[in-house]
Design a protein that fits this description.
alpha+beta; 32% strand; six-stranded antiparallel β-barrel; Seminal Fluid Protein  PDC-109 (Domain B)
Length: 466
């Protein structure tokens, strides 16, 4: 039996040195962009109240960087044309999913894409009378027994039990959109049932699966071309960020604690960990010195760098790629969101499960879907020879936790966050930007260009009140 795989992050090099390659010019398929816009327009006509995700989702169709396409072709067994088609379909699916999630409210039970080129979007609901609305939006409707809130409550009960006492022999549990239940992966059924009992969770909404996986964080003390912590351990950069005028990057929380110093791939002084959480969550941010310029790029390891245009969340089933300092570029698909994984150090909740391979030394690195940042490698099991499972921590919650702004391509370079002020139509907002509207303060949670009706008060998918 093949051993389970470990995860590998994308390593980012926020430097202007000669060793860093210039980003490939992203080509935006006009037909794909038009499809995404038309899809959201259709949702508005169907009576959906929040068309905002269209502006944030459409840039994903520009993700045709050579490194990304080559890795997708190799790992997903696609032609270059099929890879481009898949990216366009996933961009449209992300926009449609975000709008339907708002429109369906508590009856929303998840969404996933399927098919070789992600041509089918299935959206689940607990209300049969909402099926027509889903169909009109261009998706396949599925009526199920449990909404996403029901599944989340079961998942959180397991998380609380794990926080009190780490479960032995139960490495992973997650919400399975396709099954409409919560899956618990365990070394034995007895271990799984012991966790259910401690959590006060019944077996009716849970499926137990046997596994031999033993996930672990992927920090590496062997050294390599990435960044180093206190001159010893090695991890990978996730994505460039800013906070005010300070530049830096996000990475995995298990790579360092506040005050930990870092040096770059060239062993030159780089920065200091400002905030870090692990276990429970697995995110951190490092503020860098003036010698390191944040760039909207992911290292392509000789295949051309990939440009980061935003952080729109990709649905389950979407393609996702990672580039790590140990194993370079590899691709796969998003299998489940809302996953919990138990490492030797404790349980981490809220990670995303993928089938992308990885190996030690890749922790903290980037996961990207199209040109949209998804998250930072947390850990996994297996390797890139035998295959396995890799988990990444989503980038948007990390940005929100520390009040950071993702550095994106914009007009060909990084965008600085606008000064806090009154929300205005036509302004390009990045994750972490703060505005005021009707006397209240809000923080942007999804990058977009403001349109009429997308104000913070009426667009909860774009803004969070602070």
């Amino acid at each position: 039996m093949a051993r389970p795989t470990s995860s590998v992050p994308l390593r980012r090099r926020p430097t202007g040195s000669a060793a860093a390659r210039r980003p490939a010019t992203a080509r935006r398929p006009a037909t794909a962009a038009a499809a995404a816009v038309l899809a959201v327009a259709g949702l508005v006509l169907a009576g959906l109240s929040d068309p905002a995700p269209a502006a944030a989702a459409s840039p994903r169709t520009a993700g045709s960087d050579p490194a990304l396409l080559r890795a997708m072709s190799r790992d997903l067994h696609l032609s270059t044309a099929q890879a481009r088609t898949r990216l366009a379909n996933e961009a449209e699916a992300a926009a449609t999913t975000a709008a339907l999630r708002t429109a369906l409210g508590d009856s929303f039970a998840g969404a996933r894409v399927s098919g070789r080129t992600a041509g089918r979007l299935t959206v689940a609901t607990t209300r049969a009378d909402q099926a027509a609305r889903i169909t009109e939006a261009g998706a396949t409707a599925r009526v199920v027994d449990r909404d996403l809130g029901d599944l989340d409550r079961v998942h959180k009960a397991l998380d609380r039990a794990a926080a009190r006492s780490a479960p032995h022999g139960v490495p992973v549990w997650y919400v399975d959109i396709a099954r409409n239940d919560v899956v618990v992966e365990a070394h034995s059924t007895a271990a799984a049932y012991a966790l259910l009992k401690r959590a006060g969770v019944g077996r009716d909404a849970v499926t137990v699966r046997r596994t031999t996986a033993e996930p672990r964080p992927l920090a590496d003390l062997r050294g390599g071309d990435a960044y180093y912590m206190n001159g010893s351990g090695r991890c990978s950069i996730g994505f460039s960020v800013t906070r005010g005028g300070q530049g830096g990057f996000v990475t995995a929380g298990h790579c360092g604690t506040p005050g930990t110093t870092t040096s770059g791939y060239d062993q030159q002084a780089q920065g200091t960990f400002q905030g870090s959480t692990f276990p429970g969550r697995d995110h951190a941010w490092v503020a860098t010195n003036s010698n390191w310029t944040p760039r909207p790029l992911v290292n392509g390891y000789g295949r051309g760098d990939v440009t980061v245009a935003g952080s729109t969340e990709a649905p389950v089933g979407s393609s996702v790629c990672r580039s790590g300092s140990t194993t370079g570029w590899h691709c796969g698909t998003i299998q489940q969101r809302n996953t919990s994984v138990t490492y030797p150090q404790g349980t981490v909740s809220g990670v995303v499960r993928t089938n992308v391979c990885a190996e030690p030394g890749d922790s903290g690195g980037s996961f990207i879907s199209g040109n949209q940042a998804q998250g930072m490698t947390s850990g996994g099991s297996g390797n890139c020879t035998s295959g396995g499972t890799t988990f990444f921590y989503p980038v948007n919650p990390a940005l929100q936790a520390y009040g950071l702004t993702l550095v994106t391509s914009g007009d060909g370079g990084p965008q600085e966050p606008p000064d806090e002020g009154t929300w205005a139509v036509g302004t390009r907002y990045q994750v972490g930007d703060r505005v005021t509207y009707n006397g209240a303060a809000y923080r942007c949670i999804q990058a977009h260009t403001a349109q009429p009706g997308w104000n913070p008060q009426d667009a909860p998918s774009l803004w969070s009140r602070v």
